Amino acid sequence: MTETGRAAVFRGPGKGFELRELPLPALEPGAILIRVSLANVCGSDLHFWRGDAPLALPPDGWIFGHEMTGRVARLGPGVETDSLGRPLAEGDRVAYCYFYPCGRCYVCLHGQRAACPNKVGRPTGPGEFPYWVGAFAEYYYLRPGGFVFRVPDGLPDGLVSPVNCALSQVIFGLAQAGFSFGQSVVIQGAGGLGLQATAVARDMGAARIVVIDQVPARLELARAFGADHTLDLTEVPDRKARVRQVRDWTDGRGADVACDLVGFPPVVPEGIEMLRYGGTYLEIGCISRGRTVELDPSSLVWGSKRIVGVVMYDPWVIPRALEFLERTRARFPFDRLVSHTFPLERIDDAFRQAEWYNRETAATRITRAALAP
Ligand SMILES: [Zn+2]
Ligand SMILES: [Zn+2]
To answer: How many C-beta neighbours within 10 Å does residue 346 have?
Structure first.
């Protein structure tokens, strides 16, 4: 008899999920089967669910989700350690990359694994080996050579689950933008990414952190995560006034770095305007193709400004993210990042609520919904 597990198979925008029993795969050498313990509904998952991100859905559906943590269920032949050479055994808690830089392309050759064009590949259906390709399921198949790191005992799953997406994403993004000790940063958007970016920037020695959003409860959370100043769009509806305000808070210069962690294109030119001469704009938020914005490129030329786009990260980020959590968990309220946890069979609910709460202006605590498969 083959062993099986349950997975939430996505049927397409508007159609929701279907729970299915799937066989556990035979492990290839170098692969690891992970028993997922917590999977978050990430902002990018909502794009797929809603149907505003490009997606060629396999005919038998798709298991998606990527922000997760779990325990080693089975080690494939030859796997004895994690990616730092530390012994790995069944039952160990792990954090891992959900994408796979190919190591055999021009981009990988130049050491830019996060930018590898082959790191994700086409989505495969639940009928195709290795079946378990997403987080919204009881198991996840970490492909041979996938990056995996043992999790320190003291960190609860709720803190670890955002590590392989939101947290690593912002740590890598800030590094790529050249953000460093004593600099100032504007963070557009106080969702999961924005709050973690705030805490990371604080820990990196930011001189000044400004967070912009339109939900007062999120801005309150941003202050708890280390923001010096928060700017409420509803209180300062005039764009010029907002740019002036940021300049006032940064000794009249503008910020060294500004980050789009919103995913709403119109914020981009405004963020660029908030930069000092020679500053860097970090673009992470906008993942939906085809949504455009008007931009005067001469502002980049005359302002000597850079725009850096980043999707995913180099695997070295994960162990540093885990250390960051150990170092700062008493300092920032990470337990407030995941606000609602659902069992796998209520995944449709989890998505509806995540969507609802992200639009709810009176929400007091909501950031991420999580599934405990
Ligand atoms: Zn994500
Ligand atoms: Zn590559």
So the answer is: 16
Rounded Cα distance between 226 and 210, Å, is 10
The pLDDT of residue 136:
98
Ligand sitting nearest the alpha carbon of 263: 1
The set of residues, in sequence order, having a beta carbon less than 8 Å from that of 231 and lying 6+ positions away, is 210, 211, 212, 213, 219, 242, 245, 246
pLDDT, tens only, 101-153: 999 999 999 999 999 999 998 899 999 999 999 999 999 999 999 999 999 99
What pLDDT is attached to residue 358?
58
The span from the CA of 247 to the CA of 321, in Å, is: 31
Per-residue pLDDT of 181-197, as tens digits, reads 999 999 999 998 999 99
Interval between CA 244 and ligand 1 midpoint (Å): 32
**CA dist., res. 360 & res. 216, Å (int):** 11
Ligand with an atom nearest the CA of residue 97: 1
Distance 32 CA to ligand 2 centre (A): 21
Q: Which ligand is nearest to the CA of 66?
A: 1
What's the token pair of residue 15? 């159609």
Pseudo-torsion of CA 131, 127, 44, 158, nearest 10°?
-40
C-alpha 172 – ligand 1 centre gap (Å): 14
